[in-house]
Design brief:
Structural class: alpha/beta
Distance between the termini: 9 Å
Low-confidence stretches: 1-42
Largest sheet: 8 strands, mixed, barrel
Number of strands: 10
Strand order of the largest sheet: 2-3-5-6-7-8-9-10
């Protein structure tokens, strides 16, 4: 497959101390281009900013978004121009639902040179295997894409109100991880929430974590848990997207981000 030429974009928020890294920090061999720097584009924002007590996300150098059909039409070039470095796009849910905007977002993000990956929203009325194969059926195995994501949180669905015991949750999640990991050549990342993580002992999973924590730093809400991505707001303001948008921070520096991409991109 032809490898995507990805753009490494670095964001500066209005209250951020992060700066656009020099080109010397961008790993060679991937064709990365640094996004326009501070003052060149509108800044990211938050409609309902939080007063962080134990460490704010704004100083992180690398920020990205996660989206679904509810974001509507997106101006991806404006998104990248604002300094967005990555996008996770909802692809599937359960064993029979796919997001109607997934394919469009997938292609448009690639055209804008934004590294993007797909996520699956897990339902507890289907087996891990059923959901893994549904995800594979809907998400292309494309070189240069981010690793797949398994979104594990309690659902409010009337069609599937089940809350199985932790042992079943962990067992079926591992089945999904293994099947999907074999297909894409990259073990999935797990996205989860504070209550779900705690109630199901998710820290026992052999996984890279993307943690939701909108009221405090993950080191407080998930004590002792290492993380790669931190979803810090659901009320973000991103140029090119209308309405509230989830914004996420990457754990490391811009140079760390480049190294992470080299290691974790689908081949």
């Amino acid at each position: 497959m032809t490898k995507l030429v990805l753009g490494l974009a670095v964001v500066t928020i209005a209250v951020s101390c992060g700066r656009t890294p020099p080109r010397s920090q961008v790993p060679a061999g991937y064709g990365y281009q640094v996004a326009p720097g501070p003052g060149a584009n509108p800044q990211l924002g938050d409609r309902a900013p939080h007063a962080w007590r134990n460490g704010a996300p704004y100083g992180h150098a690398v920020h990205g978004i996660d989206i679904s059909r509810w974001q509507g039409d997106i101006d991806w070039n404006r998104v990248r121009g604002a300094g967005i470095s990555f996008a996770f796009i909802k692809a599937t849910e359960g064993g029979d639902h796919s997001d109607p905007n997934f394919r469009r977002y997938w292609a448009q993000a690639a055209q804008a040179r934004i590294p993007r990956g797909a996520y699956h929203f897990y339902y507890f009325c289907r087996t891990g295997a059923e959901q893994a194969y549904w995800f594979i059926q809907n998400v292309p195995r494309e070189a240069g894409s981010l690793p797949p994501v398994l979104d594990m949180e309690w659902t409010n669905s009337r069609n599937c109100p089940r809350r199985p015991p932790a042992a079943e949750v962990l067992r079926e999640a591992e089945v999904f991880m293994q099947i999907v990991g074999r297909h894409y050549g990259q073990r999935p990342i797990i996205y989860t929430t504070v209550d779900f993580y705690r109630e199901n002992q998710m820290g026992r999973m052999n996984a890279e974590f993307w943690l939701r924590s909108v009221a405090d730093h993950p080191s407080v809400t998930y004590p002792g848990q290492r993380w790669t991505f931190w979803q810090y707001t659901g009320t973000g303001i991103v140029p090119g997207i209308q309405g509230d948008t989830d914004i996420n921070a990457f754990a490391g520096s811009a140079a760390d981000w480049g190294r992470w991409l080299q290691r974790r991109l689908v081949r």
